[in-house]
């Protein structure tokens, strides 16, 4: 469908929405701007609750496929997989919606406006909500976010499958306990180079239907009422034509936390005047008072309602049943065998092999009689799911996955080992009350699989049940409680040890990196995660994930948590050597990348293409992510940045040509005023399986190919 047809269709939706809204009185309009919008029987408007979640599956509304947490999906470094997962999520969302509508259920978490994805930049490993994101890199976040939105919203020329939402706009990544009063002070350069690019990509490339504002202020303006963010940038500069929703009860923070307004009426007026259309919460009830006091006119309220009803029109919510093709998706599409198969396949792709000395992995079950599985995450369902999760019909923990895989052929000994973070498992016992059991299990086994890390009780959103530390943020990036002590005892047994880490963020596992022969980072791998881990450990598939975040050695390598300047943060700006770098991950196979070449030696507005040949030189079928990094060779510029990516799957001995396009924007940087341009000078382009930094090359045992191109004349690019 061409642009004229799209524009004509959108105009029809808007016209229908406007005709409907113009029949409402002021109070009716205001009530439609709340997340729990009531019915207007006289106009045939049914009740609708806008609040629904779909971060890694349909959440909080009963049975649904629980895919790997967002940070794990990012680790797959696979754009196609992201869209496949999002398409599956939207299919289940429609299936559940159809069933709920049939029985009159219009409650919270029952609509088609899904408040996902979270595309904030995971700038600091202490942030508890980082596992909701796609990691620390703006380019990767944008590419994965675009594909997620396309999968959620579908490709029907007439209807949205669901309405996706880019959140939280903008400059939001903790601290959680300060978010209702925090002012994120950020330079224009960091704003446009790091914090905004993913949002722009989702708006301009994916056509995301909604944007959610953040709780915090940015440079003194509350995000959900920021003229700079919502009007100047989002609507005027980027041309966003969807609706804006506040984070939940964020409007109340204007006067109670940020103190930029004097009353609830002032806060509501500020939000709507600057383009916030729907209030998750109840603050917009004060709009009637704001109109009476002359703080806002009725026109912006009307326009907000038109945008909201335009979205509902696009979703087909005012059509006769059966008109919209998605109406035919049955409830049996939820938790189907096909969904479980996709979930397992996705989970396998997310696992990152951090270390494999001596080729310990994969294990050969034919050579084993007894395996010990120990640790607080071995049988921990919470360590499968992450937050904003649905309810699976079956969960497979790592212990259960190993037990199922080995069956009666190999004996499995299990010990919880220690509490996730406390000093004893039994509150009445002395410290380390499972240590003797662990030692006995190790002594009687051929190999030990230690399952350590975190779960969503230790990292998450402020107010989430179970987040006992720093309102969901982490004070330390090491293993909590007695876990490292447990690991040392396991290694002292003299048995081969495989460390399985489950977490939504980076862990400073320095001792393990030095002493444990095999380490597998598994994130929160979803309801099928235990099967995926077991099948990977025993060689049914090869790990192919790459780290979407830097694993730091210490918090001393990071600036203060409240400092939003990017200097010293993430792989793009850090100077310290990481423990495990962004983009790193091993395989059971080996690959050669040869013949790397650029289609041109000069960077122009047309960009260029990088080509190479990838060959599987190992003896196992496996996949790898071909990564392209760009470095501007002049002082004061970031480290080499990821700008191209392609996933390749090869049989042993197979080779395949790869072609990756680099638009001109891949060579651009922002100046101090936030203006993006390609400067004249030399640029290095790296093509390989990792970053070109020294640590990555040492861990991978090979370096990316380096190409050099230049720009003869500077030019601006959109950004």
Summed up:
The protein is α/β, with parallel strands linked by helices and 719 residues long. Helix content is 29%, strand content 17%. The chain has three domains: 3-333, TIM Barrel (Alpha-Beta Barrel), CATH 3.20.20; 351-573, Rossmann fold (3-Layer(aba) Sandwich); 591-716, Immunoglobulins (Immunoglobulin-like).
Q: Main β-sheet, in a few words? A: 6 strands, mixed
- Give me the count of strands: 24
Task: Write down the CATH class of the largest domain.
Answer: Alpha Beta
Strand residues, percent: 15-25%
Describe the fold and architecture.
This protein is of the alpha/beta class and 719 residues long. The longest helix has 24 residues. It folds into 3 domains: 331 residues, Glycoside hydrolase, family 3, N-terminal domain (TIM Barrel, Alpha-Beta Barrel); 223 residues, Rossmann fold (3-Layer(aba) Sandwich); 126 residues, Sandwich (Immunoglobulin-like). The radius of gyration is 26 Å and the shape is globular. Helix content is 29%, strand content 17%. The strands form 7 sheets. The protein has a 6-stranded mixed beta sheet, sandwiched between helices. Strand 13, helix 18 and strand 14 form a beta-alpha-beta unit. Helix 1 crosses helix 12.
Topology of this structure?
Layout: H1 3-21, H2 26-32, E1 36-37, E2 48-49, H3 70-75, H4 79-102, H5 138-153, E3 165-169, E4 183-184, H6 188-195, H7 197-204, E5 210-213, E6 217-218, E7 221-222, H8 227-237, E8 243-245, H9 250-256, H10 264-273, H11 287-292, H12 298-314, H13 337-350, E9 352-356, E10 370-374, H14 382-385, H15 398-406, E11 411-415, H16 435-443, E12 447-453, H17 483-492, E13 497-502, H18 510-515, E14 518-521, H19 529-537, H20 570-573, E15 591-598, E16 608-616, E17 622-632, E18 641-650, E19 655-662, E20 669-670, E21 676-678, E22 681-688, H21 694-700, E23 705-711, E24 715-716
Parallel strand pairs: 3-5, 4-6, 5-8, 10-11, 10-12, 12-13, 13-14
Antiparallel strand pairs: 1-2, 6-7, 9-14, 15-16, 16-19, 17-18, 17-22, 20-21, 21-24, 22-23
Helix pairs in contact: 1-12, 2-12, 4-5, 4-13, 5-7, 9-10, 13-19, 15-19
């Amino acid at each position: 469908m061409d642009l004229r047809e799209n524009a004509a269709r959108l105009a029809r939706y808007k016209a229908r929405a406007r005709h409907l809204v113009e029949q409402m009185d002021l109070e009716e309009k205001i009530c439609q701007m709340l997340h729990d919008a009531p019915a207007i029987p006289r106009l045939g408007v049914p009740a609708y609750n806008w609040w629904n979640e779909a971060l890694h599956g349909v959440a909080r509304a009963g049975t649904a496929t629980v895919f790997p947490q967002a940070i794990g999906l990012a680790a797959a470094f696979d754009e196609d997989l992201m869209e496949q997962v999002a398409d599956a999520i939207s299919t289940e969302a429609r299936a559940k919606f159809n069933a709920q509508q049939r029985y009159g259920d219009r409650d919270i978490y029952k609509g088609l406006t899904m408040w996902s994805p979270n595309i904030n930049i995971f700038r600091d490993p202490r942030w508890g909500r980082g596992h909701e994101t796609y990691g620390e890199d703006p380019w990767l976040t944008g590419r994965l976010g675009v594909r997620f939105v396309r999968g959620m919203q579908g490709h029907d020329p007439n209807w949205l499958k669901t309405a996706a939402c880019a959140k939280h706009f903008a400059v939001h990544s903790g601290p959680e306990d300060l978010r209702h009063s925090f002012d994120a002070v950020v330079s224009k350069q960091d704003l446009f180079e790091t914090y905004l690019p993913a949002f722009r990509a989702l708006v301009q490339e994916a056509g995301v239907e909604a944007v959610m504002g953040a709780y915090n202020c940015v440079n003194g303006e509350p995000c959900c009422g920021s003229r700079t963010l919502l009007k100047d940038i989002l609507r005027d500069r980027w041309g966003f034509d969807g609706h804006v929703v506040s984070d939940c009860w964020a409007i109340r923070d204007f006067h109670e936390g940020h103190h930029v307004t004097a009353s609830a009426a002032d806060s509501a007026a500020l939000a709507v005047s600057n383009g916030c259309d729907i209030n998750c919460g109840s603050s917009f009830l004060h709009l009637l008072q704001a109109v009476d006091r002359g703080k806002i006119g009725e026109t912006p309220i009307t326009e907000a309602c038109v945008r909201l009803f335009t979205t509902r029109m696009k979703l087909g919510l005012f059509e006769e049943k059966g008109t919209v093709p998605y109406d035919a998706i049955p409830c049996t599409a939820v938790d189907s065998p096909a969904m479980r198969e996709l979930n397992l396949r996705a989970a396998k792709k997310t696992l990152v092999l951090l270390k494999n000395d001596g080729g310990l992995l994969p294990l050969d079950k034919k050579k084993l009689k007894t395996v010990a599985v120990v640790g607080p995450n071995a049988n921990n369902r919470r360590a499968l799911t992450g937050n904003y999760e649905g309810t699976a019909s079956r969960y497979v923990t790592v212990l259960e996955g190993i037990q199922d895989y080995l069956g009666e052929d190999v004996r499995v000994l299990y010990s919880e080992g220690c509490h996730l973070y406390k000093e004893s498992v039994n509150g009445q016992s002395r410290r380390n009350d499972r240590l003797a059991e662990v030692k006995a299990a190790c002594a009687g086994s051929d190999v030990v699989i230690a399952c350590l890390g975190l779960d969503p009780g230790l990292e998450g959103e402020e107010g989430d049940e179970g987040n006992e530390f720093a309102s969901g943020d982490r004070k330390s990036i090491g293993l909590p409680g007695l876990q490292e002590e447990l690991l040392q005892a396991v290694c002292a047994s003299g048995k081969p040890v495989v460390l399985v880490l489950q977490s939504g963020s980076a862990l400073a596992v320095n001792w393990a990196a030095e002493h444990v022969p095999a380490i597998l980072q598994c994130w929160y791998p979803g309801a099928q995660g235990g099967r995926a881990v077991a099948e990977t450990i025993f060689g049914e598939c090869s790990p192919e994930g790459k780290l979407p975040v830097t694993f730091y050695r210490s918090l001393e390598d990071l600036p203060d948590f409240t400092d939003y300047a990017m200097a010293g943060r993430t792989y793009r700006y850090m100077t310290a050597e990481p423990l495990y770098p962004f983009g790193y991950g091993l395989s059971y196979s080996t690959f050669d990348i040869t013949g790397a070449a650029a289609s041109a030696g000069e960077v122009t507005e047309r960009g260029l293409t990088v080509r190479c040949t990838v060959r599987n030189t190992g003896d196992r079928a496996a996949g790898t992510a071909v990564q392209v990094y760009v470095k501007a060779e002049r002082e004061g510029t970031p480290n080499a940045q990821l700008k191209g990516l392609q996933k390749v799957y090869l049989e042993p001995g197979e080779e395949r040509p790869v072609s990756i396009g680099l638009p001109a924007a891949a060579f651009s940087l922002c100046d101090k005023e936030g203006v993006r341009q390609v400067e004249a000078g030399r640029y290095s382009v790296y093509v390989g399986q990792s970053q070109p930094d020294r640590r990555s090359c040492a861990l991978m045992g090979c370096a990316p190919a380096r190409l050099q191109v230049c720009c003869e004349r500077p030019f601006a690019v959109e950004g």
